[in-house]
Amino acid sequence: MKTALVAILVFGMLVFIHELGHFAVAKFVGIKVHEFAIGMGPKLIKFSKGETSYYIRALPLGGYVRMEGEDEKSDDLRSFNNKSILSRISVIFAGPLMNFILAIILFTLIFYSVGVPSTTINEVMEESPAQTSGIQEGDTIYSINGEQMNSWQDITESISSSSKKSLDIVVLRDNERLEKKVIPTIDENSGQVLIGISPTIKKSIGDSIKNGFTIIYTITSDIFSFLRDLITGQTAAAGEVMGPVGIINLVGQVSRAGWIDVANLTAVLSINLGLMNLLPIPALDGGRIFFLFIEMLRGKPLDAEKEGMIHLIGFALLITLMLFVTYKDIIRLFS
Q1: Domain boundary among 169, 202, 235
Q2: What CATH code is carried by the domain that includes residue 121?
Q3: Distinct helix (H) and strand (E) counts, the chain
Q4: CA distance 70 to 81
Q5: Is residue 151 part of a domain?
Q6: Which of 46, 74, 121, 237 maximizes the CB count within 10 A of its CB?
């Protein structure tokens, strides 16, 4: 029961934020919006305000914003197709953008809650290379091998890439710069290059936001690498594709660990949803943006009904793919 509730909340938030982006920008540029729906299938709740009807539907696996003239011809001045190309691109792009904004907010909350490792040393291990060189608790690492250290990640990356070579470390102590030469060691179990220090954890909104952007960049790069492996036929990558059933199972696992793990998974899923929607595939936001760029190059609009049919076919193929992945999820779940 808890798993189902948390899964509904996670999926609902992802879909709501995404569709809210489309809806808000559509309203802002003056497009007539007929429906704003969260979920698919039979309607559970419906109410209307002005020209727009709002729905909550039974299956929390999607949503939509139905705009005048989006997939059909319309002479209404407030129809989607009668707005400028820039306005239409803004409406479509706003959905994925909101998913990235949600991820930033969630990662910022996570980093602020658990704290962000700083460049100031909290502990120096006994008989470690750092202690031998004279580095002390409370020192702030300013630079390593002439490169300024702006974060704990910079420090760990510099140490890891040293391959046990000597490190010229400049630390700040009582407003004084001190130069230390440190020869790292390699941990026998993990193979990591270490000098024997741990960071001071601090809570900072600025650093939390910065770390949020950093992890989003890392996750985005990993997703692109995954897609590359998938396209080139890497079987390992293909086996990692997960559908709704697999994600619900994953949500259930992390929900037992606490809100931070649920928030982290939600942020990762939000990035995936935003990025996948930007792929130039019919029926996805990226496909619609792609057609708008074609219209921009041609200097005239495409036939709305033909484009709508292409998106319909793309949607059917995506549903087929989702059903296949869901089947694989179920087989994996009970295997």
Answers
A1: 202
A2: 2.30.42.10
A3: 10, 10
A4: 6
A5: yes
A6: 121
Predicted model pTM = 0.77
Rounded Cα gap, residues 318 and 135, in angstroms = 57
| Residue 152 and residue 242 share a domain | no
- 311: enclosing H helix or E strand: helix 304-334
124 and 264 together in one domain: no
Q: How confident is the model at residue 237 (pLDDT cuts 50, 70, 90)?
A: low
Domain that holds residue 105: 2-113+212-334
- What tokens were used for 123? 């502990």
Check if 35 is active-site.
no
What average pLDDT does the chain have? 85
How many Å separate Cα 39 from the centre of its chain?
Answer: 21
d(CA 301, CA 80): 12
With H, G, I as helix, E, B as strand and everything else as coil, classify residue 302. Answer: coil
- Report which of residues 299 and 173 the model is more confident about: 173
- Note whether residue 207 is domain-resident: no
Residue 30 — left, alpha, or beta (φ > 0 → left; ψ -120 to 50 → alpha)? left
Under 8 Å CB-to-CB from 113, ≥6 apart: which residues? 260
- Higher-confidence residue of 8 and 271: namely 271
Q: What is the pLDDT of residue 51?
A: 92
The tokens for 7 are 């899964």
Region 32-47 average pLDDT: 91
**Gap between the Cα atoms of 199 and 204, Å rounded:** 15
Report the alpha-carbon distance of residue 88 to residue 68 in Å, rounded. Answer: 12
Provide the pLDDT confidence category of residue 193 given band limits of 50, 70 and 90: confident
Rounded to a whole number, what is the distance in angstroms from the first to the last CA of the chain?
Answer: 23
CA distances from residue 240 to 215, 237, 272, 318, 325 in whole angstroms, order as listed: 21, 5, 14, 18, 10
What are the start-end ranges of the H helices in 161-284?
A: 205-231, 235-238, 244-255, 259-277
> In this model, does residue 326 exceed pLDDT 70?
no
**Do 216 and 327 reside in the same domain of the chain?**
yes
Catalytically annotated residue among 19, 68, 70, 307: 19
Identify whether 253 is part of a domain.
yes
